[in-house]
Amino acid sequence: MDPTLTITDCKVVDLRFPTSEEAHGSDAMHSDPDYSAAYVVLTTNQSDLTGFGLTFTLGRGTDLCVGAIEQLAEKIVGKQLSTLVESFSETVHQLANDSQLRWLGPEKGVVHLATAALLNAVWDLWARAEGKPLWKLVCDLTPEELLRCINFSYLSNALTKEQALEILQANEATKAVREAELLETGFPAYTTSAGWLGYSDDLIRRLCREALADGWEHFKLKVGANLEDDRRRAAIIREVIGPDRKLMVDANQRWEVAEAIEWVKSLAEFNLWWVEEPTSPDDAVGHAEIARAIAPIGVATGEQCQNRVMFKQLLQLNAISFCQIDSCRIGSVNEILGVLLMAKRFGVPVCPHAGGVGLCEYVNHLVMIDYIAVGASLENRVAEFVDHLHEHFVYPVEVKRGHYMPPQAPGYSAEIHTASLDDYRYPDGVEWQKRLSK
Ligand SMILES: C[C@H](O)[C@@H](O)CC(=O)C(=O)O
Ligand SMILES: [Mg+2]
């Protein structure tokens, strides 16, 4: 990398898509989700090198994230990329520990979403500068180089640096075999696109049939608002997909602990693989209680797990059978790597969350990293796929017969077409002006 490559400016765009108009993305807690992003563009002193990153939000929340990113950007603007990434854990520390902004977290909520957006853009810039897709950049680092990127703070009672190094070193010799396998067959995925809460029974039936024809083997249904509706909708999906394909349900935090146990038992006859976000994402002990009561149905969570410390507790308490990292909620690849390593140590498969805009583009890289360099297994692993808004990305995900194919373009795949920014920037984009002027 050119050591003089310097970040000269950070622009942030409030980008919102009116997905709620057709109930795309709807669940028991988010009835009108407008999939949105606080979108970051890092310009540099080289006109052909720009870094793009985002954090996923919903509608009005985007504005708050934009403000937080603008506040944090001063930590990286004016800095040389080589300095930022050579001591990446120091860069992360600087972002997470601004002595005034950390009061709003620390490392949770809006400020942490902002950290994710900025670091995602820095990783994108690094991968572009090296001319590699992000997953390849990360997998080509030596275990020692990778270790320098990871945010290990507060993890030492579950994962030490020495244990992490041991995991990474053990995978070194066989990385090339797994990479070749992914290039050939891709990483298994599941679809949520047929099961949003606001979809009618007929639409669910039709979308499930179409997904089956496209080769999908795993399906997720939104539940939690009304038990009789859930039973009817689960019966429809089970009938269409047959007895053996995997079916998961997602309650998006709707229930009390006892209610979750009772509700899931009432759906158990539909042969569920996991129940996702049964209760508050902060209730690690509650998740453990639910997990014990509903086994062998697994508990999955993570999309609103605020940081690696919460993941640590969920793993230490045997509260989850599936670890759902989110590419934009926690502090980018630096924090995600620590969670992947903890999940490996605790023997819990990582099945990333991707219901949002840009999240599929991101998890595509993350599952490649996990399989090649960390988890090194495909057992019980599936990454989420939702079929919305990919047309806005310059390098959209490629999915074949229910598998994510490895991205080939340099970077972390979050660059958005200029025309899409002009149409969906809030509130002055063409599509919003049409709606707001009605
Ligand atoms: C509001 C989002 O669409 C949410 O429902 C996504 C989600 O829970 C998932 O994809 O899982
Ligand atoms: Mg979910």
UniProtKB/TrEMBL annotation:
Please cite one Gene Ontology biological process associated with this protein.
Answer: carbohydrate catabolic process
- Please tell me whether the keyword Metal-binding is annotated for this protein: yes
Q: Write the Enzyme Commission number(s) for this entry.
A: 4.2.1.68
What positions belong to coiled-coil segments?
Answer: none
**What is the official name of this protein in its record?**
L-fuconate dehydratase
Lineage, top-rank taxon, reads: Bacteria
Instruction: Recall the taxonomic lineage recorded for the source organism.
Output: Bacteria, Pseudomonadati, Planctomycetota, Planctomycetia, Pirellulales
Which residue intervals define the domain Mandelate racemase/muconate lactonizing enzyme C-terminal in the entry? 201-297
- Write out the entry's keywords from A to Z: Lyase, Magnesium, Metal-binding
PROSITE patterns xrefs: MR_MLE_2 (PS00909)
Cofactor(s) required for function per UniProt: Mg(2+)
Q: Does the keyword Metal-binding apply?
A: yes
Pfam families the record matches: MR_MLE_C, MR_MLE_N
Task: Name a GO molecular-function annotation.
Answer: magnesium ion binding
Reaction(s) catalysed by this chain's protein: L-fuconate = 2-dehydro-3-deoxy-L-fuconate + H2O
Q: Which Gene3D superfamilies would you find in this protein's record?
A: Enolase-like C-terminal domain (3.20.20.120), Enolase-like, N-terminal domain (3.30.390.10)
